[in-house]
Amino acid sequence: MNVEGWKAFRLVPNDVLFFRDSKPSVLGQDHYLRSIFPLFPSTLYGAVRTRRLFDQGVELTGLKEATWQDRLGAALVDELGPWGGFGSLELRGPWLVRGNSEPLLPVPADLGLRLAHGLRSNEERPEIAEVVRFRQGSAENRRQSHPLAPLYPHTAAGSLWKAPGPGVEPRSAGGEWFLTPKGLSAWRRGGVPEASDLVHRTELWCDEARTGVGLESERRISEMGRLYTFGYIRLCSGISIGFEVKGSGLQPGGFVRLGGEARTASLEMGPAFPSWTEGISAGARWTLCFAAPALSEAGGYPPGFAESRLEGTLGDQHCRLTGAVLPRFVLSGGWDVARQFPKPLRRAIPAGSVFLFESSTGEQVSPAEFDGRCYSDFPREALTRQGFGLALAGLSL
Length: 397
Hints:
Elements: E1 2-3, E2 6-13, E3 32-33, H1 41-55, H2 65-72, H3 74-80, E4 90-98, E5 102-106, E6 111-115, E7 128-136, E8 151-157, E9 160-162, E10 171-172, E11 177-179, H4 181-188, E12 198-200, E13 205-215, E14 222-235, E15 239-246, E16 255-258, E17 263-269, E18 285-290, E19 311-314, E20 317-325, E21 330-332, E22 335-336, E23 341-342, E24 346-348, E25 354-359, H5 383-386, E26 391-395
Parallel strand pairs: 3-14
Antiparallel strand pairs: 1-2, 2-15, 2-17, 4-5, 4-15, 5-11, 6-7, 6-10, 7-8, 8-9, 11-12, 13-14, 16-17, 18-25, 18-26, 19-20, 20-25, 21-24, 22-23
Helix pairs in contact: 2-3
């Protein structure tokens, strides 16, 4: 599908996958190499760039700055950019795909759940008793370490909101659950999805640990103190990785080398990013959720906002930050292949994080203005071009 120049694809892995986290691994201190999932946009962006080099028959051996222009040719350089730079290629994603056509996005963290029972194991889907939405309340007579209004769980009762019934306090669903397009439409309208619209991570992938031993290079026997374990990711049957590209000649078919150990995945046409829900009117308040990690110079404040200041710029709109729900930070780093140097290790705002905004002038703003765009600071690193900070936007009622 091609919408406004975006072409949608999905990657169907042929085996387990490994996406190294940014935690340092020190010999003798930690034997477990952890995998993060869903993968970072930069990993997917690099895989697409490599695939485009293979498409054009570029020999990677000995490829360096001096040979880059001659080996690639003008058209491919325009798409991938100069050595160590960026060209016309843009990416947004990743998301997960169920079946051939249903994209699944991270659940916004302002949605909460009350479970019928706790998880009995790490591989069991919990039963949802109630879905709530965290909404702003008064900050009067409350001590807190930030100037934002506190958020309280509410359930939808027609056009009204009420506090949930007695029982266990609902907790944010961010980080563990994914949302169907139907549930996303309800969230965009300022409402609450149904329990059937939420998909738990245990229905999408599982962790698969594999243990190995280091070998002495000469005798090929095990070496003392060289035991290690890799935490691989195995997608469940019918689950794949979706994304979109623009400004690229990428076509379906063949394979993509993905993640650590260059595991392969088949490249197929996939479902597009869930389009904006028609008929949502503009308002003076709106909610933004990051469907992919975002990087901000102000740490936990959204891109475009200075630290400890509640007014900033989101895209072209000057607005005021009124509330936020953030899961635990994730570390974003990696390896710069062109410069043979590690990328800066930074705390990233994780996928599912939610920010509540209002217009600084009180004028009506359409959330569609922000939906599907990417937001991140550090413009020299072209993070938005790589897919960081992909935004889902909706009304804040």
